[in-house]
Amino acid sequence: MSQIPREAVLQAVLPILSEAFAGPADPRSTHFVNNVPDCGLFGTLDALTAEQASVPVDEGGATAAAQAEHVRFSLDVSVRWMRGEREKADWARSWDVREVDDVAWAQLRTQLRATYDAFVVMAHQQPMDAELLEGLVGTVAHAAYHLGALRQIAKHALGGAEAAAA
Predict the structure, then answer these.
(1) In the predicted structure, residue 161 carries a pLDDT above the cut 80
(2) 107 lies in which domain range?
(3) Which of 38, 101, 40 is nearest to 65 (CA)?
């Protein structure tokens, strides 16, 4: 596969990925999230208690805890893939977490942040080729999708208007 200038791609893609996870670096200029601090995945999850993160919006729906674990799992699969580990992932298992207590909720959010950080480090270490570019773009789209789902869950859990600012 042909090489793509790594820095050019990383400078374009990683800030958008960071916006999905951490929120905008500068709330005056965003690509797709609200113009408020902490509106990314991390801030949205941090606004929820363990109890709120364990309640689905509707019967049988995914909880915020399930969404968070699924995103963490997907990042972990990507990190392992970049390390050359090509085992088939059990994607159904990524939705096993449904309910969390305070300790498990704090651990899950910590693990999500650590796995995100590992993903960014690995992205910087990989040769930039079409496969990595596809993975980076897919990760941005996946994160944006789950951010939207989590914001809807948070809106429900926090009672509407409060979540709009979260």
Answers:
(1) no
(2) 6-25+35-165
(3) 101
What's the pLDDT score for residue 160? 66
Count the neighbouring beta carbons within 10 Å of the beta carbon of residue 162. Answer: 12
Please say whether the beta carbons of 60 and 95 come within 8 A.
Answer: no
Q: Is residue 58 part of a domain?
A: yes
| Structural domain total, the chain | 1
pLDDT digits (tens, 9 = 90+) for 106-142: 999 999 999 999 999 999 998 888 888 899 999 999 9
> Which DSSP state fits 57?
S
Domain assignment present for 43:
yes
At residue 32 the predicted structure's pLDDT band, cuts being 50, 70 and 90, is confident
Cα(43)–Cα(21) distance, integer angstroms: 8
Within a domain: residue 15? Answer: yes
Among the listed residues 26, 48, 49, the one whose alpha carbon sits nearest the alpha carbon of residue 37: 26
User: For position 118, which CATH number holds?
Assistant: 1.20.120
In a domain, 1, yes or no: no
The b/e string for 40-77 (b: 16+ C-beta within 10 A; e otherwise) is: bbbbbbebbebebbbbbeeeeebbbbbbbbbbbbbbbb
Sign of the CA dihedral running 95, 101, 105, 108: negative
